[in-house]
């Protein structure tokens, strides 16, 4: 399943790396692409959308 989330407070590539690590802690096989300019995170995952959003939130980022 592919998810696309907007993360308004993702400011830089380091933020993207933190978000990627948080998502991969839930689904180690997840493919994550982050774009700080557009604030978009695209995730290819087998985990539920709820699990992914909770992982991003737990890492300190809001999900719009």
Describe this structure in words.
The protein has 64 residues and is of the alpha+beta class. It has one domain (2-58): Alpha-Beta Plaits (2-Layer Sandwich), CATH 3.30.70. Helices cover 38% and strands 23% of the residues. The chain has two helices and three strands. The protein has helices at 13-26, 49-58; strands at residues 2-6, 31-35, 40-44. The chain has a three-stranded antiparallel sheet with strand order 1-3-2, with helices on one face. Strand 2 (31-35) and strand 3 form a beta hairpin.
Give a brief outline of the structure:
This protein has 2 helices and 3 strands, in the order βαββα. By secondary structure, it is α+β, with helices and mostly antiparallel strands.
Blueprint (SSEs and pairs):
Blueprint: E1 2-6, H1 13-26, E2 31-35, E3 40-44, H2 49-58
Antiparallel strand pairs: 1-3, 2-3
Helix pairs in contact: 1-2
**Estimated helix fraction:** 25-40%
Estimate the strand proportion: 15-25%
Average pLDDT across residues?
Answer: 97
- The gross shape turns out to be globular
Looking at this protein, list some descriptive labels.
2 helices; 64 residues; single chain; three-stranded antiparallel beta sheet; Alpha-Beta Plaits
